[in-house]
Write a structure and sequence with these properties.
Blueprint lengths: L5 E5 L3 H14 L3 E6 L2 H11 L3 E5 L7 H11 L4 E6 L6 H7 L4 E4 L7 H10 L22 H16 L3 E5 L5 E4 L1 H7 L3 H4 L14 H10 L5 E6 L6 E10 L5 E10 L1 H23 L3 E6 L10 H7 L3 H4 L10 H5 L2 H12 L1 E9 L5 E12 L5 E10 L1 H12 L1 H10 L4 E5 L10 H7 L3 H4 L10 H5 L2 H12 L1 E9 L5 E12 L5 E10 L1 H59 L5 H32 L8 E4 H15 L5 E5 L4 E4 L1 H18 L4 E7 L3 E7 L7 H4 L17 H11 L3 E5 L4 E7 L3 H4 L5
Length: 767
């Protein structure tokens, strides 16, 4: 007998290496000459040992199989490399073949056939034997459990149909499987992604993937990084989660990628707007713009304030703003009075004398606005002061030169500037007034200025109030609606100033009106845009919260049956000969029940996904209800022998629905009754004119009031656990078939209503 073909085994899982090495040794058909636990050791071993074959794992920490495969082939071209992995073959087998692998074997295959498959790869080198380079023991021979196959297929569908990017990665960060959403986000095909180092998709965070991998190595269950994608105007939030074995050792990585481009753009735009506003305020020199705390102490100070008042920021911040007022005004507590009005009415405005640091006085136009936070709490005041001393002097000069003033006013077109007599009748009219109001001078002079106000404002005698205020305080200013000659309204900024001669006699009023409708609309549009951004952020947060809850609930529900399957299988494997027949049967029954539980969970998850995506395939037909329920009850008794199901009501009732979805809905109601109630369970059929009601009750205490309002919401769970999807699916399946599901509090019953099948329409397949 000649020398045996030699083989090197490289896998980071010591228990896997031990199993494979033992099976190969017992076969006496191959000789194991070396072992390693990562890609770097694989290169070293084939360089030194030149084995006939290398059995190479795909996912390993440090350097994985995909990364070192070209180096292995270069170091020992005569060595046949067989990839050995737990990942699905789809796309990955082709990629490894491109890199030089002779075959791709799945770890889900039987160890009993491993040696035959390895020798089959060797035989494939001879032309007389068929090639086996794409052998997948899990895909042929009928050895896979059909229930497990159904689970895997449903998981693939959920993975592929997910709205966010998903991928599985080796422990070194290479993509071994990707869904359509990730391909779309990154601008690459799925085939291009398979085998790609994910670091190549991270542009502006050079160590982004390394950072995530280090977090996983440190024991973290979730790691995130936000990054750009090369060649795309896109930002992704990438989340990496290790999938661990029962000992907590990472097997491979699960990646999720979410497009946050629009969210980050909106945040940056908001920050830029705030930055520009701050720069604007700080750069303004003609206006003193500063903040006061709720008690009137100065909290901020701009360049215009220093220029106008003479104080530096270090000198004035923290002092009370009364320091700017003449002593007699301070003694009258007028500064405090201004704050009270601004706090009560939101705004205060006046003109008066103010004092600089050097003691000189200047005439100022002052506006004080109360500032509140988003919760309505008062946080202080904004104060805008403009030195209008020169303007006041100019007003005096203009009054002394009435003719020149009139010529100037009449030429202005953007402002309606006109004079009122002491009673409010129009005494002059400029081109801007004609343009804004629509009246010719001959049509309007002599009429009372109340004509420009809406009827309800006239009735409240607000125009007269404006004149009284202007006469008393020298000045009046407001924003409000005004009416043109043709009846249309416009938003106007209005200033009314009492006019006196040099002797102090009241001559009338100067009125300046500017059409600010466009500015109002722009402000409203900005407010709507801010609200839309806030709503988008809320929706994004809700989606993230719901996704986190979905993952947590699913993981919790999977842990139980998966644990039972694993522990039962391990016990049977280790102690089969020590167990009596009854114990073996109990363990096997437990495994069947756990598999059924997993099947139900995956079915609910897939149905929920399709309902949400509106891609559920419904094929309704007339169904004889009693016959259908009898079959369901019999099936339930097989899996739950202790359950008692009683059928009652109309035996001839026929509905128009999808048989499979009817089974799923009723099964969910029965499972809910078993979990949260107790036997006997009664299903009563009630026929109405256009619908049939299936009323499900049990001998339990019913649903507690605080749970009733959210019974049919996604992820609504009671104190006995569950995914919270069962009743949600019942309601959505009913609605998808023009029906409804509800809880009758008085009868303590769940009611599933579906369309009644008409005898004359059933033959045509319509309800």
């Amino acid at each position: 007998m000649g020398a045996l073909p030699t083989i090197v085994i490289v896998d980071d899982a010591a228990d896997v290496r031990s199993l494979v090495r033992t099976r190969i040794r017992l076969s006496r058909r191959l000789e194991v000459v070396g072992e390693g636990n990562d890609g770097r050791e694989a290169v070293d071993l084939v360089t030194r040992l030149r084995p006939t074959m290398l059995l190479l794992d795909v996912s390993m920490p440090g350097a994985d199989g995909l990364q070192v495969l070209p180096a292995v082939r270069a170091a020992s071209p005569e060595t046949l490399v067989v990839m050995y992995s737990g990942f699905e073959r789809q796309g990955l087998a082709e990629r490894t073949a491109e890199l030089g692998a002779a075959a791709y074997l799945k770890k889900s295959g039987s160890l009993d056939t491993l040696v035959d498959e390895l020798l089959g790869v060797l035989d494939g080198r001879r032309p007389s034997s068929p090639a086996t380079t794409t052998t997948d023991p899990g895909d042929s021979g009928g050895r896979r459990d059909p229930v497990l196959e159904a689970h895997l297929e449903r998981f693939r569908e959920v993975f592929e149909d997910a709205a966010i990017g998903m991928a599985t990665l080796t422990l070194a960060g290479r993509v071994v499987r990707a869904n359509r959403s990730l391909a779309s986000l990154t601008g690459r095909s799925i085939q291009e992604l398979v085998g790609l180092d994910y670091a190549e998709l991270v542009e502006d965070v050079p160590d982004g993937l390394d950072r995530l991998l280090r977090a996983v190595e440190a024991g973290e269950d979730v790691a995130q990084v936000e990054h750009a994608v090369p060649g795309l105007d896109l930002r992704l939030l990438t989340t990496l989660t290790p999938v661990r074995d029962v000992h907590g050792v990472p097997l491979y990585l699960f990646l999720q990628a979410q497009d946050v481009t629009r969210q980050r753009g909106a945040e940056e735009q908001l920050r830029e707007t705030e930055r520009r506003f701050r720069m604007l305020v700080e750069a303004v020199q003609d206006y003193a713009i500063f903040m006061l705390d709720p008690d009137g102490h100065i909290a901020s100070w701009n360049v215009g304030a220093e220029r106008t008042k003479g104080y530096t920021a270090a000198e004035i911040i923290g002092q009370h703003f009364r320091v700017f007022y003449p002593p007699e005004v301070q003694e009258a507590r007028h500064p405090e009075h201004e704050l009270q009005i601004a706090l009560r009415e939101g705004h205060y405005e006046e003109e008066g004398w103010r004092i600089r640091k050097d003691g000189t006085r200047f005439w100022a136009h002052v506006t004080i606005t109360a500032v509140r936070d988003e919760d309505g709490r008062h946080v202080g005041f904004t104060k805008v002061t403009r030195d209008s001393t020169e303007r006041r002097s100019a007003d005096e000069a203009l009054r002394r030169s009435e003719q020149r003033f009139r010529m100037l006013v009449e030429a202005v077109q953007d402002y309606a500037i006109f004079m009122l007599d002491p009673d409010g009748r129009i005494a002059s009219w400029n081109a801007g007034a004609q343009r804004s109001k629509g009246y010719l001078a001959d049509e309007i002079i002599g009429r009372h200025f109340r004509i420009f106000y809406p009827v309800d404002v006239q009735q409240a005698r607000h125009p007269e109030h404006e004149l009284a205020t202007a006469l008393r305080e020298g000045h009046y200013e407001e924003d409000g609606w005004r009416v043109r000659k043709d009846g249309t309204r416009f938003w106007a900024h209005v200033t009314i100033t009492a006019v006196h001669d040099e002797a102090g006699r009241h001559l009338g009023f100067a009125k300046v009106t500017r059409d600010t409708t466009e500015r109002l609309r722009a402000a409203e549009q900005e407010a709507r845009a801010a609200e839309a951004l806030s709503a988008a952020n809320r929706l994004l947060q809700e989606a993230a919260d719901e996704q986190a809850q979905f993952l947590a609930i699913t993981a919790h529900e999977l842990r139980g049956p998966v644990g039972v399957l694993g522990m039962s299988a391990e016990t049977l494997h280790r102690h089969w000969s020590d167990l009596v027949e009854e114990e073996r049967a109990e363990f096997l029954t437990s495994m069947v029940d756990s598999a059924a539980q997993l099947n139900r969970l995956l079915s609910d998850l897939l149905t929920t996904s399709r309902l949400q995506a509106r891609s559920l395939d419904l094929r309704p037909e007339p169904i004889q209800v009693r016959q259908h329920l009898t079959t369901l009850a019999a099936t339930l008794r097989k899996t739950h022998p202790q359950a008692e199901v009683v059928l009652d009501g109309d035996e001839d009732a026929t509905i128009f629905a999808d048989p499979g979805r009817l089974t799923q809905a009723v099964d969910n109601l029965l499972t809910n009754a078993l979990r949260h109630g107790r036997s006997p369970i009664r299903i009563e059929t009630r026929t109405h004119e256009d619908r049939v009601d299936l009323v499900v009750t049990d001998a339990g205490t019913g649903v507690v009031p605080e749970m009733q309002e959210r019974l049919f919401e996604r992820f609504a769970t009671g104190d006995r656990g569950g995914t919270g999807l069962g009743l949600h699916i019942v309601r959505e399946l009913a609605r998808a078939q023009d029906g409804e599901a509800a809880y009758d509090e008085q009868a303590q019953a769940f009611v599933l209503s579906l369309p009644r099948a008409r005898v004359d329409a059933s033959a045509a397949g319509a309800p």
